[in-house]
Amino acid sequence: MDEREVKNQIPCVIESGVLTNYRDMQRILRDLGHVRYAEVVDGDVRHEGEGYVMSVVSNGHSATVVAHKRLYLNVNGFEYLRLAPIDHQSTAFELVDSCRTLRLIPQVDPIAECLADDDIVEAARLLEDPLDTDLYAEIYADDDDAVDGGVA
Predict the structure, then answer these.
(1) Cα 107 from Cα 36, distance rounded (Å)
(2) Are residues 16 and 93 in contact, defined by beta-carbon separation less than 8 angstroms?
(3) Beta bridge partners of 39
(4) Number of CB atoms found within 10 A of residue 83's CB
């Protein structure tokens, strides 16, 4: 099998599709953050609410637990993950097994969340401020003393 044939076997899912690899499922779910969830069993909504994805694992020992507005997900408890577009701006993440679906709908736009993050705002502010070269010269001088065996 040539390299091109191998590359064509690797899925490329954009906004809709199905993932069956547990590592892919785990990777896509772990940073969802704040979500609305619904457990659908045989077509009927059994539970729904809001919560925060706390952890996503892939093992044969842990349960998927939704309690006290926290979601602890184990992708091994599901057959696949379906990405289902809701509208042109959002996608539902559906963990599916034979008779149950756990639907997760992100409640925060990840781009807006990143732009509003205080650390990023602070980093941008620091980049705009002129550097105090005297301050950095002192820091580097202290580092040089430590390398030379001096006490910092």
Answers:
(1) 7
(2) no
(3) 47, 102
(4) 16
pLDDT, tens digit (0-9, with 9 covering 90-100), for 8-48: 677 888 888 999 999 999 999 999 999 999 999 998 999 99
Under a CB-based contact definition with an 8 Å cutoff, are residues 48 and 60 in contact? no
For residue 83, which of 106, 114, 55, 49 has the smallest C-alpha distance?
A: 106
CA atoms of 149 and 110, how far apart (whole Å): 47
| Sheet with 34-41, side-by-side order of all strands | 17-19, 80-85, 91-96, 100-106, 34-41, 44-57, 70-74, 65-67
pTM for this prediction: 0.69
Q: Closest by alpha carbon to 101, among 30, 45, 35, 17?
A: 45
End-to-end CA distance of the chain: 59
- As given in the structure block, the two tokens for residue 84 are 């289902």
Those residues whose C-beta lies under 8 Å from the C-beta of residue 152, and which sit 6 or more positions away, are 142, 143, 145, 146
Q: Which strand (E) or helix (H) includes residue 39?
A: strand 34-41
